[in-house]
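Deliverable D5.2: sample structural annotation.
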Amino acid sequence: MNKDQFLCPNDGTPMRRDLRPVTLTYKGENLTFDLAGWYCDKCGESVHVGRDLKDSDRMLNRLKARTDGLLSPEEIRRIRRRLGLSQAEAGELVGGGPRAFQKYEAGDLLPSRAISSALTLLNRDPGGLEILKTTRTRLGRAS
């Protein structure tokens, strides 16, 4: 057996790499998606590693955002680009720090209600961005 193969923890049967539907539930809402993993055809057991777990975490964040009324990764990216900001600039002006928007847009980090609200307002009125820039500059000079 090669290092890239798993044995079923239940019965020792060789498992096979496959995509299978998985359903996540959060606050009574469901999201079904195909998840890569090692699957036992005999008993149905599954083993998920590395990238599989990251994909599952991202889908759970997507479900939480949808259920809790937060912006999706795609909406965050669209608004940031519409405002003409790099990910680092958005993190500095809107909040979260220089790598936050990279994580929001990848789906690795769920945006807070404050970040979602700020982006929603800026999407509606991009002129608010100048207020943030002016405030940042003024506060930067005061320190």
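Annotation notes: Residues 73-142 form a domain with the 434 Repressor (Amino-terminal Domain) fold (CATH 1.10.260.40). The chain has a mean pLDDT of 93.
The annotation will be released with the project's public dataset once the embargo ends.
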